[in-house]
Amino acid sequence: MALLDRLPQHLFTARGWGMLAAGVFTLAAAQVMGRRDLLTLSILLLVLPLVSLAGIRLVKPRFRVYREFHPSPVETSSPTTVRLAVARTGAGGGRANMEERLPPWFGTSPAFRFPSRSAAGGTSRYEYHLRSAQRGQFRIGPVTAEFSDPFGLSLHRQAIDGGDTLTVTPAAVVLPATGLAGARGNDGVTATRTRANPSDDDVMTREYRHGDPMRRVHWAATARHGSLMVRQEESVTTPEATIIMDHRFGAFAGGSTAVPSRQAGQAAADGYSMVTSDTFEWSVVAAMSISAHLADRNYGLRFLDACGGPAFLQSPSAPEPESEEYGGTSGLQSIAESLAAIQLSGPHHGRREATAGTLSGSRAAFVRPRSLAGQDNAPAAFDDGLMDKLSAHRMRGPVIALLGRLSAEEAHALAPAAGYGTNAFAVLVADKPAELAPVLETLRQGGWRAVAVPPSAGIAAAWAAFDEDIPLPAPAADVRPGARVAP
Question: Is 160 exposed, middle or buried (0-12, 13-18, 19+ CB in 10 A)?
Answer without folding.
Answer: buried
